[in-house]
Amino acid sequence: MFDQLGEGVYRRRYESLDLNIGVVIGEEGVLIVDTRATHAEADELRADLVTLTKKPVRWVIDTHWHWDHTFGNSRFPGAEIWGHHLCRKALVDRGESMKEDAAVWLPDLITEFEQVVITPPTRVFEDSAGLDLGGVAVTMSYHGLGHTDADIVITVGEVGFFGDLVEEGAPPVFDDGYPLSWPGTLQGALDLGSIRIVPGHGDVFDQGGARAQLEEIEAVAMTARRCIDEGLPVGEAARLGPYQEDVMMSALNRAVELQL
Ligand SMILES: [Zn+2]
User: How far is the CA of 144 from the centre of ligand 1 (A)?
Assistant: First the structure.
């Protein structure tokens, strides 16, 4: 089922990884936000899209470089693939090794991951870019280091596709993140004023829900600051929350190591 979020704007929430895919339909064609984790999942998405529109997919936007959002890219050969320039760089430099990361999460799909044709964005930007789908304007913007170094927000009217800068139903993932920078980045993204905020995974947020998550990420950053500035041991700080201990350990170790 596609949920309509605005005029010509939809999202589909897939059970696999609880991943959200964005769909925007203009007069000239269809744009999709993220392409799922394997070729088979991308093919399922293509089949599902036919139930919504017969127009061709002409644009793909990757919210960031993580495999669960980009490994379906090659299944949309007629489309321009857009992303932040650091999203392209990550997939060019490390795309092949990301297949091994993916297999750690979903070992049953190892054969499918091996078959993925890594297809980085070819249309890239630094701060912002826009697309005209024919009567529908789409804006892409970059706000700094966050869940990765390359998270972008895609804005269409009142809807914002935030990728994994926010996550619903599970804590944010800090493994490739920048815990000290993330709050400022998310603040900048929220200041765009989107009314309906689509996270990379889980249910749609309103501004209040997303700002509640911002406060949690700020609490993580403040705790990390205490580790760095006051020498609070990471193991002790991890028990202070707001997230469970393993998530906090990941975030605090990253923060102490990178100081970013
Ligand atoms: Zn991610």
Answer: 15
Domain boundaries, the chain: 2-206
Ligand 1: centre distance to CA 162 (Å) = 11
Q: Which residues surround ligand 1, an ion (CB under 5 A)?
A: 66, 164
For the domain made up of 2-206, give the CATH fold: Metallo-beta-lactamase; Chain A (3.60.15)
Question: Which pTM value belongs to this model?
Answer: 0.97
Residue-wise pLDDT for 72-98, tens only, equals: 999 999 999 999 999 999 999 999 999
List C-alpha distances in Å: 243 to 41, 173, 213, 226, 260: 30, 11, 11, 16, 19
For ligand 1, the distance from its centroid to the CA atom of residue 218, given in whole angstroms, is 19
At which residue do the structure tokens 């950053």 appear?
A: 221
